[in-house]
Amino acid sequence: MEEKRNAMWAYLITGAMILISLLYWATDVYYMYMVIYIWFGFAYGMMLQYGRFCFASASRDLIAAGVPRMAVGIMVALIFFSFIQATLESVNMSTFHAAPFGIHMLISGAVFGVGMCLAGGCASGSLYKVGEGNMTSLLAVIFGLCLGQAIFVDTGGVFNNLMPQAWVDKAMQTQAGMLQAGINLPVNSWFDYYLAGYIWHQPSFTIAKLISGGHPTAIHFFVGNAFINAMLPALIILTLIYFFYPRKNFMKKRKKEMKKAGKEPVTGFSDEMAGIWAMITSSKRTSWMGILVGITAGLHILTMAGIQKKFGVTNFGALLKRMGHFSDVSLKGEVFDPGYWYITSQEGQLGAWILEKFGWNMHDNIFFGFVNGLPEPIRNPALWMSLGIIFGAMVMARLSNEFKFKLPSTELIIWGVSGGILMGFGSRPSLGCNIGGFFIRAAGGDPNGWGYGVGMIGGGFIGGTFLNWFTERRMRQQMADF
Amino acid sequence: MAEMKFEKVSDTEYNLDVCGFVCPHPQLYAKKSLEKIAEGAILNLVFDNPSSKETIVQMCEAAGNDIIESKTEGGKIYLKIEKG
Among all residues of chain B, which has the CA nearest to that of A250? Predict the structure, then answer.
């Protein structure tokens, strides 16, 4: 009975998504651009839920529970995705762009890392868990990723005094320069000074560009971006995880088997390789999804590049203007449209849109007013990708009878909201989260991705240690009654 | 509403209910409960966070604990674990 009801819900949700897509297509063919985001989001959601794919569990489960499953899955995904990214770059069909380089990535990653541990899921993980019916994750998304981010980028007043004078001066110079070109750059919040005074003056590069002297070809994309920046670090991390975690038990078992077979219990290189392979395949569900996520993320880039070429645009804002929706776009005439898998900026836009309904002016800052725009949610392409993730995960959870509507307790409300806010804050200075800040960039040859990744692991360690202490304390309280 | 309950049923059997909790609480409470009970004792674990199951299963395999019963009912996952 329960299975039938769940299957019916899965069909209903999928049917509703198809209907929404058809309505968009019937309204204007340009909305097919947005429909691509919906369905890639849907596919990500299904895969994330099936593979229990969460970046928070990668560091936290490794540190707190000694389980490497997720860290391994992410490295597998990274290896596959980097290869596809290099292929797409080679044929000029990539929408990837490197981010401004700097220490801000490490700091931002650390804040995000603590947040994802407390919230119980990373940015993408929280979305798929909402699809499983988890309302704690919904709180993390609403208060942290949506409202938290929007407030963070628009905060000014006394907080502006925290910005270094050099950034303020540079931002003022940038504003004056743009005014001469006829653009009135809104510089009001602390984040405006950060962007115009620091971020915009940082270098952006990929390893391929670095080793080719600025003119990369296919060999530079494969060797520099894919191999040096993604595959090699991923293989080193996999080896380190193996040595510090499952190796001891694996070798113990191996030697036992050798003794049983009457052989001398001496292990060699082939046994080490077998151990690494056993670690990778120990959770087939996660590893398979790692491969699929990597391939899908690559296909997503290819499809976005294709439709951009078809419509002759590089940003959905141009299509919104063609359809007459001028108030949706920023001063640059654009909206947030990454062209690949990305979380957080679109949630920030939703938060800003909500706050504007309560009278807060969210157009008077660079992030929304000049760069990303504030489209109506029904015309926000990246937001539809996030909704796609939620609904894709919901369908998968229903099909596997794992959907359960769960209301949070007071304790979980505190975890969810505090963790979500830290995730929101930790994804803005880096202009991305575990996906846009780490996964996409590391695979695309941008060394910034590893800056963020190392920060996330550090933050994960702090968050994991804190949770370890907290749960230990709880257990002792419960055991006092025994 | 979520509230963690760790109960002693007998000298060799314990119940741990972590329904309503999200990651990483179910796996952390399961790990700590297993650390605190004696070898050969049984832990009846119930939780409803699907993502935790993979981690708990791997955690048990690595530590040599046997999952002697596993079922999913009404969105809840029940594991009977014998400490090895």
Answer: B62
Q: Is A136 on the interface with B (CB under 8 A)?
A: yes
Question: Which among B2, B31, B36 has CB closest to A479?
Answer: B36
Asked if pLDDT for residue B1 goes beyond 80, the answer is no
Give me the pLDDT at residue A141, please: 96
Q: Alpha-carbon distance A385 to A361, whole Å? A: 26
Verify whether residue B23 is a known catalytic residue.
yes
The pLDDT, as a whole number, for residue A290 is 87
Domain contains A26 = yes
Please give the CATH architecture assigned to the domain spanning B5-82.
2-Layer Sandwich (3.30)
The β-bridge partners of B77 are B47, B72
- Ramachandran category for residue B74: left, alpha or beta (phi over 0 → left; psi -120 to 50 → alpha): left
Residue of A nearest to B11 (CA): A482
Contact of A370 with A185, CB cutoff 8 Å:
yes
Q: What is the pLDDT of residue A293?
A: 92
Which residues, given as ranges, of chain A have pLDDT below 50? none
Overall number of domains in chain A: 1
Interchain CB distance below 8 Å, A65 and B8: no
Instruction: Give the pTM.
Output: 0.92
Domain of residue A221, residue span:
2-246+282-481
pLDDT in tens, B2-61: 678 999 999 899 999 999 888 889 999 999 999 999 999 999 999 988 889 988 998 998
Q: Does B67 touch chain A (CB under 8 A)?
A: no
Residue A209 lies in a domain: yes
- pLDDT at residue A441 in the model: 95
- The pLDDT of residue A332: 94
Q: Which B residues, 8 through 27, put their C-beta within 8 Å of a C-beta on chain A?
A: 8, 20-25, 27
Interface membership of A120 toward B (CB under 8 Å):
yes
Burial class (CB in 10 A: 0-12, 13-18, 19+), A180: exposed
